[in-house]
Amino acid sequence: MATGQECDALIIGAGPAGLMAASRLAQAGRHVVITDRMPSAGRKFLMAGKSGLNLTKRESPQAFHAAYRAAAPHLAPMLAAFGPAEVEAWAASLGQSVFAGSTGRVFPDAMKASPLLRAWLADLVAQGAEFRARWRWLGWAGSGATFATPDGRRTLHPDVTVLALGGGSWARLGSDGAWTDQLGPTTPFAPANMGVMRAWSPHMTPHLGQPLKGIALRAGEVVSRGEVIVSARGIEGGGVYALSPEIRAGTPMTVDLKPDLAIAAVVQRLARPRGKASLATHLRKTLGLSKLAIALAQEVARPLPSDPKALAATLKALPLDHDGPRPLDEAISVAGGLRWDVLDADLMLTARPGTYACGEMLDWEAPTGGYLLTACLATGSWAGAAAARRLAG
């Protein structure tokens, strides 16, 4: 075992899901080897934490589970076992205190991911786990897992294996989706939490890169109150990310520029005498619309109607046409992955007993806001605990 060629448990993928599975197995006293094709662990985890690591969210279990939509029934037992409260307790156990913002989103006090990751890796090493960097998984060789390593081809023969190979976005950080060639049936990857493409006229140039706040986006029956950024490439930000499934399905999207005002109130304000003021000035003074909001309305619905009722209806449901999602590799996360019907209740591959899967490689998606990381940690904990039980006989 000193050479690292044999082990009780093998973890393939050193992102949050894989590291949590490793933690569960190490806590059970098992010799764990963690491999990753990248030079270091948690590359995407660190990138996600550059602007503030959103660990989880404080809200009711019903609201939290609903964020996972179609996958909620599959994830429910895992989130019940390791949900938001457990995520906070886990961070505290690694010496990382947390706080919740006004929306319930939970962050480490340090905000960044690096202190948490360092503490996590140190804890794993203290429990005897070993890390193998630049080990790229090639597939199976009978009962073994074969890797391309800096020292040539290596094959490990663990008693249990946990796959945490990630999704298909941000390939430069390790999630290239190449594993789909090696495993059973998958739902094809599609971008999730992604922006949409749109070509703007020169009229919009002065406003590009600015946030559009205090709005509501709608696609079908789904409404999102998050803000967006109007960028040179289209529309990005949490508000549009939450509508990813509808956008992929081609559902038309509209924006309500005054979601906190009923349409009757908007009509009443617009009916005020305008005098010699321009329409843009009238919109700014009566409704408090920003220059960006007014420019967007003129961009997508020119010429704007002069009748207050027609104008109010336009501003409350501004058609937001676009040219489709940004490419898969630019998406924050993915939809699709390893299908649930090839896994048992322990996340073990039914076609390969003793091999488990977890994290973003499974067929689920969720919006940003703490849901993504919590589900990765929850499925990793679930798979690791199940693998430990199998080793215990």
Structure description:
The protein has 2 domains: about 10-190 and about 330-390, FAD/NAD(P)-binding domain (3-Layer(bba) Sandwich); about 195-320, no CATH class. The protein is about 30% helix and about 20% strand. It has helices spanning about 15-25, 45-50, 60-65, 70-80, 85-95, 115-125, 240, 245-250, 265-270, 280-285, 290-300, 310-315, 370-390, and strands at about 10, 30-35, 55, 100, 105-110, 130-135, 135-140, 145-150, 150-155, 160-165, 185-190, 195, 210, 215-220, 220-225, 230, 235, 255, 320, 335-340, 355. β1 (about 10), α1 (about 15-25) and β2 (about 30-35) form a beta-alpha-beta unit. The two termini are about 20 Å apart. About 45% of the residues are buried.
Biggest sheet layout = 5 strands, parallel
CATH fold label of the largest domain: FAD/NAD(P)-binding domain
Report the span from N to C terminus: 21 Å
Structural class: alpha+beta
For the record, what CATH class of the largest domain applies?
Alpha Beta
Q: What is the number of E strands?
A: 21
Shape: elongated
Mean pLDDT: 95
Count the DSSP helices: 13
Radius of gyration: 24 Å
Which secondary structure elements does this structure contain, and how are they paired or packed?
Elements: E1 9-12, H1 16-27, E2 32-36, H2 43-48, E3 56-57, H3 61-66, H4 72-81, H5 84-93, E4 98-100, E5 105-108, H6 114-126, E6 130-133, E7 136-141, E8 144-149, E9 152-156, E10 160-163, E11 186-192, E12 196-197, E13 210-212, E14 216-219, E15 222-224, E16 228-231, E17 234-236, H7 238-241, H8 244-248, E18 253-256, H9 263-270, H10 279-287, H11 291-301, H12 308-316, E19 318-319, E20 333-338, E21 355-357, H13 371-391
Parallel strand pairs: 1-2, 1-10, 2-6, 10-21
Antiparallel strand pairs: 3-5, 4-5, 7-8, 8-9, 11-20, 12-17, 13-16, 14-15, 14-18, 16-17, 18-19
Helix pairs in contact: 1-6, 1-13, 4-13, 9-12
